[in-house]
Amino acid sequence: MPYSGCFFLLILFCSSAYTLQAQSNVKTDTVKKKENILDLITKRRNFLIAPQFDRAPETGILTGIYYLQLYKNKHDTIARTSNTETYLSVTQKKQYLFEFNETLLFKKENYILRGGSIIASYNEYFFGIGNNINLKQKENIQFNLIQTTQRFTRKIVKKMFAGIQYQYYQVYNLHYPENGLLEKSGAQGLNGSRTSGLGPVFLYDSRDNVIYSRTGFYLDISALFVKNFMGSDHQFTNFTLDARRFVKFYKNNILCLQGLINYNLGDVPFRQLALMGSDIMMRGYYMGTYRDKVMTCGQIEFRIPVWRFISIALFTAVAEVQPNINSFNWNDIKYTYGLGFRFMFIKHERVNIGGDLGFGKNTKALYFGSGESF
What we know:
- With 374 residues, the chain is mainly beta.
- It contains three helices and 18 strands.
- The strands form two sheets. The protein has a 16-stranded antiparallel β-sheet. Strands 12-13 form a two-stranded antiparallel ribbon.
């Protein structure tokens, strides 16, 4: 789910939209009165717009807006639906964030452009590097961020793609407590950082839908080579493997599996290390609670329809971060589990809104948003 916030106003909007439509149908068409409520709410809809409201110690009160736009070429029966996402938020502590993500599928899915860009002035908590941290000790750091990651792939054979990716990542105006956790960690990028990297991408994607997958397999293998000659002040290499499997069973119940490896070599700035925790993976942990050069993680989720447009999600995950592969051990594995609620907002594309409550070891977190974690 792309972001935390509040969608209660959106749900009220949905309810009112149905009420007005139903009242209109009573007067004009006795047949339409019998239409399914979900059909009435989502009929011909190809976008989602919602307010965002949140409050956290590091940001104060946060307000913003989220906009999802779906694109379907009626003349291309092979390509799945493309989408773009836009986030804009401001906080009580004079922070701001603008984020734009796109997944665009062209010409019978022969080409795919996928990426995301962020411009932000933000605060976040830093807990330390590695597994030997105290969750009760953290410090607030402030920074400006400009980031873009763009990936372009071309179909090789059916469901299989290969291409190239580029990433630019700049952290500046970085402020943190003197003699605090970050300064004592000896991390790279304490004076800010600017990195620029290029690398190959291999993708196999047989999912039935890119937003809400019910069947299929997804395998993403990529490398990123960050070098000085491309404008970087740090040099490192990143390898990522992301594998997902979706199985539909017993009517519309769905079993979802994901395994992820994030492997870094070289002088990696602390914000570009492998970060554990978020609304995507290890729900229940603050993003970056644990961070290091290498992370392995896996999660399982059951998506269960309850009634018409309402469903729930049960999930669990395990993960570990270490400075290298040889350091992994059973004692440092972290776990999380939880429950999610889903309200289907766009039926024909299976776009949900809702929330997840995740629990980890001595930690928990609540997330609201649209879409699915994976």
